[in-house]
Specification:
A hairpin with a 7-residue loop joins strand 1 and strand 2. A seven-stranded antiparallel sheet has the order 4-6-7-1-2-3-5, with no helix packed on it. The chain is mainly beta and about 180 residues long. The chain has one domain: Superoxide dismutase, copper/zinc binding domain (Immunoglobulin-like). It is globular and about 60 Å long. It has no helices and seven strands. The chain binds copper (II) ion. The site of copper (II) ion has 8 residues, from strand 4 and strand 6. One of its GO terms (molecular function) is superoxide dismutase activity. Keywords: Copper, Metal-binding, Oxidoreductase, Zinc. Belongs to the Cu-Zn superoxide dismutase family. Its EC number is 1.15.1.1.
Length: about 180
């Protein structure tokens, strides 16, 4: 597909450099019943050898340390889930319709393409940028981004024991 300038999508990293038109996809995060004030944006941008993921979120719940066998609230597990469906469903177990982790190469948890770093809240605000070579921005169009109540342990199978789902966002193509 060509864009307005007649340039093929995808980056050409040689010469001339202006022919680079990175593919970009994005998701708007909306909190569910467990975090109704949560709003956020995730941007997936093609960069040399992979994808840069930028996320900015407001309205995360206040941190609560672990107590007994109750997991802490925050830092927040953050993943790609396989189904692009952000229906709330059961209000006590929201966003189950998004399915499990997106795991196209059948890896153990901790190495799923959709395993992301946790989000650290700063009075409800979090921002982070990281790099992954496990997918391109187009690969994740139609998947869902989920923020969880509790941290991912990158160990429990299949999903890291990150607890309930606070927010969901459907990934769409930007360019
Ligand atoms: Cu998840």
């Amino acid at each position: 597909m060509t864009n307005y300038y007649g340039v093929q999508h995808g980056c050409y990293y040689g010469y001339p450099p202006y022919r680079c038109v990175p593919s970009i996809s994005f998701a708007q995060l909306e909190g569910g019943p467990l975090a109704p004030g949560l709003k956020g944006l995730v941007i997936f941008r093609e960069v040399p050898n992979g994808t840069e993921v930028y996320v900015e979120v407001n309205g995360l719940p206040q941190f609560k340390p672990a107590e007994g066998n109750q997991a802490p609230i925050g830092p927040h597990g953050f993943h790609l889930h396989e189904k692009g469906n952000c229906e709330v469903g059961d209000e006590t177990e929201p966003f189950k319709a998004a399915g499990g982790h997106w795991n196209p190469t059948n890896q153990p948890h901790g190495n799923h393409a959709g395993d992301f770093p946790v989000l650290f809240s700063n009075n409800g605000y979090a921002r982070m940028t990281f790099f992954t070579n496990k997918f391109s921005p187009q690969d994740v169009v139609g998947k869902a981004v989920i923020i969880h109540q509790s941290p991912d342990d990158y160990r429990s199978q299949p999903s890291g024991d990150a607890g309930k789902r606070l927010a969901c966002g459907l990934i769409a193509k930007y360019q």
